[in-house]
Design a protein that fits this description.
The protein has eleven helices and 14 strands. It is an alpha/beta fold. The longest helix has 13 residues. It is globular and about 55 Å long.
Length: about 325
Amino acid sequence: MLTDEFGREVTGVRVSLTDRCNFDCVYCHNEGLGDTRGPMDPQDDEMSTDDVVTFLEVAAEFGVDSVKFTGGEPMLRQDLEEIIQRTPEQMEVSLTTNGTFLPGRAEDLVDAGLERVNVSQDALDPEDFAAVTKSGAYDKVLEGVDAALNAGLDPVKLNMVVFEHTAGYVPEMVNHVAENEGLQLQLIEYMPELTGKPEWNIDIERVHGWLAKQATEIEYREMHNRKRYWIEHDDGEGRGMVEIVDPVENPTFCANCHRVRVTHKGYLKGCLNRNDDLKPMGEMTKPEIREAFRAVVSSRVPYYGEYMVKNDAGEWEVNDKYIEEFAGA
């Protein structure tokens, strides 16, 4: 297993299969790349089935034991089932999707080897959901969640980005997962530095505080030192798990990051927040992938606390040390 200079082992990879999407969410940062969405038809610059599988085989050689397929909307790839089926057996396979294509495909994905799924659901009202996603697919998403549960995926996590447009739905969403067995809730901190709308930001610590008051149990997850809150439904029937993903200005989160990302065009990416560390994998031969993988792991830097440091005024600024290193690379 490869370890970076800060002692962080790389145990997982996130592979973007496409930047195409049938939604146009107002908060989307497309795995940190920005809004690169193009035509909905398959694009020549997307990694091929064989390219994805070859990369995963190399990652497995280095002890990587989990892969999450993302996008864009990864289910726009008609070869998704084949990719999952050909993923090395040692890897746990998960998927982040908007859920609209799960009906009719969820069982085939499970048969291929999919183990877990995250479904983006930012509101429990069709009109507000449409305002956030620029999509009228609210009912289809609910149908997709049911399809995932019926196919035996466990857990089915609902991803909800918490910002000005959605924060009011947190209590309702917590109740929703508490009363529906098999569902969990992942509240994702809004990232204004990637989306360019700082006025939409809210204080995520207020959400932590509210959940702590409601919780009957709080536990810590090793990855990113995250908190998990177990909360009972308002009527006492059922209990749900809620987890917050809060990377913004969080050195602890970055110090516990064990992932490397792959863009849909086949570039390795050491950090979500950065695009100055993209590493091409050449013609996607195994020797080239091995060399690029080693290089990107060796250059990984915790974003907050190292790449970004606080100045005397307590403000975050880029640490020139790493800019100079990459300029000379």
